[in-house]
Specification:
Layout lengths: L1 H23 L2 H4 L5 H11 L3 H11 L15 H11 L3 H4 L10 E2 L16 H13 L5 H17 L7 E2 L9 E4 L2 E5 H6 L1 H7 L12 H7 L4 H21 L12 E4 L1 H30 L11
Parallel strand pairs: 1-2, 3-5
Antiparallel strand pairs: 3-4
Helix pairs in contact: 3-5, 3-8, 3-13, 5-8, 7-8, 7-13, 8-13, 10-13
Amino acid sequence: MGHRTIRERRLSIILGAFAALLAALPAPLQAWGFYAHQKTAEIAEANVSPETRAKIRALMRSEDLLGTPECDLATLQDASVWPDCVRRTRWRWGYTAAWHYRTAPICEVYNARSNCSGGNCVTGQIERNHRILADESLPDQLRLEALAFLVHFAGDVHMPLHSGDRGDRGGNDRETDYGIVPGLNLHRIWDGPLAERAITTGDRPIVRRYSAEERAELGGGNAADWGEESWSISRSFVYPTAFDTDDVCGADLPDKTALSQEDIVRGVPIARQRVQQAGIRIAELLESAFAPGPLPQEEQR
């Protein structure tokens, strides 16, 4: 009995230290901002044309003109995390914080036009930066900045809790255990460990050249559509699973909950598909932005 108690104490200390380490990591290293974002960029790069890859490399030559030496922007993988990196410098980039999400209450009818005043939300900025990137009359460094924002935000909008909310800042205020790991929150779980498990789980590598049939299945739509998909996943799966109820709108939810191993296993294919969809749709955005022809029209939102 005493031996078992010592082992349990040691396990508790290890798990507590692990949770503390996660909490101490800077935000870009915890989330899609570090791992899943880079994988969406790698998927996109594997699924664009050689011509588009060449145009991306040409834009990267203007990196020094951005004046962000602390944040590399020399590859598409760099671009996928650059917006999280630069916003650490709050006096210069703090105004971009609201661009990373557009949360909508899961217990109200979805409205693609709400909570995005002046285009200051993730869906509005996907549209804006796609237009800037496509405009060859603009300086290369402005288009490179737009490229980074576009790649990053198209990833953000596919994470369900960047769109769905239950009065808790997209799950940030819901302390949630991840299996045997205590002390995380619901948002961080979907951003980090669940996404990482999803990326490394599957019969085939997640980064590859997808078939035309796969691209047709995973791609399509616009920023508002992708935000609604994420909102719907939050409403139908994320919150019901986390709180073991089909009626997440019928009563107040507790501030603390837990995901069992069974919950995690059920969430993995959903998280994996969102990463795949993000990568393929980023590829589509880049192809259309670099395609010759008239500027894209603003989407009606």
